[in-house]
Write a structure and sequence with these properties.
Elements (H helix, E strand, L loop, with lengths): L1 E4 L2 H15 L1 H13 L2 E8 L2 E11 L2 E8 L6 H17 L4 E6 L4 H9 L3 E2 L7 E4 L1 H4 L20 H4 L5 E7 L5 E3 L20 H4 L29 H7 L5 E5 L4 H11 L4 H4 L2 E4 L2 H10 L4 E3 L1 H14 L9 E5 L11 H9 L3 E5 L12 H4 L9 E2 L4 H12 L1
Parallel strand pairs: 4-5, 8-10, 10-11, 11-12, 13-14, 14-15
Antiparallel strand pairs: 1-2, 2-3, 3-4, 5-7, 6-7, 8-9
Length: 399
């Protein structure tokens, strides 16, 4: 097997022929990247199999990595090289959005992509993965102005009173408990290694969750040593905030995880359960809903069914006692939008939230300019990742 850096003089024709056979869209991206001179690429050759890995900076805040192979015969050495290239791309794109396009389906490559914390886009055909920065980013704006106090749970109340609901992610541990932690792997934020869910809760509790944060591209890490033992469990979060409404995200589409969470939630008093909503993959959420039919849930399948029914027929049967998000740009298709629709959702005991973008990842109303896009006197819910930025608007309203 040979791995070499791409040469525009020697390899361009080879790569164009390869991508033409595998994925025409990747070929178009490749030619645009060459025209922009904003890319780096590597060639794989092993017998009859050939492949290419190229990283394209397609915009100031967006990188796209393409992985293409002619056949499914991917060796261990291939995977080791791809692993190194993905790590290099993550470092290069730090603080920016990073997509990975796997342009020919291969279980080994898909598994490797997942191990690096990428998540499949809900609308992808099964070979496109997105690195979601709202949870995995290692840069924070004005990080040096954030003090250790931000790790202290009792000080989170600074903004919680402005929120109707707060979202967090859970990971099932090997001892069937739930850790509250976003990342699929531990390497980015913590001093640990490997897949988060391949550890016990006790093991996760030994880690430093402040280890990976930097505001100067790795020159300093001001939170190192200050987050040891602070990864919370689901129990701890719900017990510390007994009167808060939460949106809980299952970080997998594993049916077993839905079963374990259902068993856990069945022990919670009914009045507390009404303050919780769970969303995630279709299989895990279907299992959870089967065991807890009165629990508010959301998945791609539940949203699709409810919205198609409502848009086509104006019925709200599938929208009763549930929860869903909708990109603002699609909201005008809803019957009675905005006022009458919001009234119907409240009457149906349903939580409705607008998001920005196309809904494939967590774009929120994070600036004053974003809020100006909302309908006048809008009374429904909105998704935000930066309550600290938009808080003054709602703080004035509360007062």
């Amino acid at each position: 097997m040979v791995l070499r850096e791409f040469s525009i003089y020697r390899d361009r024709e080879l790569v164009e022929k390869l991508l033409q056979r595998i994925n025409v869209n990747a070929l178009l991206c490749f030619n645009k990247a060459i025209a922009r001179k904003s890319f780096e690429a590597y060639i794989f050759e092993a017998g009859a199999n050939r492949g290419v890995y190229f990283l394209d900076r397609s915009a100031d805040d967006l990188y796209i990595a393409h992985i293409s192979f002619l056949t499914d015969d991917i060796s261990v050495k291939h995977l080791a090289h791809i692993d190194k290239l993905i790590k290099k791309s993550i470092t290069t794109a730090r603080g920016k959005k990073l997509f990975i396009h796997v342009n020919a389906y291969n279980d080994k490559i898909i598994s490797l992509v997942h191990q690096h914390g990428f998540q499949e886009k809900p609308d992808s055909p099964g070979y496109e993965y997105l690195y979601i920065l709202h949870g995995n980013e290692q840069r924070i704006d004005n990080l040096h102005n954030i003090e250790y106090r931000d790790y202290q749970p009792h000080l989170i109340d600074d903004y919680l009173y402005l929120l109707d609901q707060s979202e967090f992610d859970i990971q099932l541990t090997t001892d069937n408990q739930f850790a509250v932690f976003h990342d699929w792997i531990l390497d980015y934020r913590t001093n640990g290694q490997g897949v988060t869910r391949e550890h016990t809760l006790a093991e996760l509790k030994t880690l430093d969750i402040g280890y990976g944060y930097t505001a100067d591209n790795g020159k300093t890490y001001p939170f190192r040593g200050k987050g040891i033992g602070l990864m919370p469990s689901l129990d701890e979060v719900l017990n510390y905030f007994p009167d808060r409404s939460f949106l809980i995200h299952i970080k997998s589409d594993d049916k077993h995880e839905g079963e374990v969470l259902a068993d856990y939630l069945q022990k919670i008093p009914e009045d507390r359960l009404t303050m919780l909503t769970v969303y995630g993959g279709d299989r895990s959420i279907a299992e959870l809903k089967e065991k807890l039919p009165n629990l508010r849930v959301m998945s791609r399948a539940t949203m699709k069914k409810a919205l198609l029914e409502y848009i086509a027929l104006g019925w709200i049967t599938s929208m009763r006692n549930t929860h869903f998000h909708l990109p603002l740009k699609y909201a005008h298709f809803l019957w009675g939008w905005p006022d009458r629709f919001i009234q119907r959702m409240k009457a149906a005991n349903t939580h409705f939230f607008l998001v920005l973008g196309d809904g494939t990842w967590s774009e929120g109303f994070d600036t004053f300019e974003d809020l100006n896009q909302l309908p006048r006197d809008y009374l429904g819910g909105i998704w935000t990742n930066r309550i600290d930025r938009i808080a003054p608007v709602f703080d004035d309203q509360k007062k």
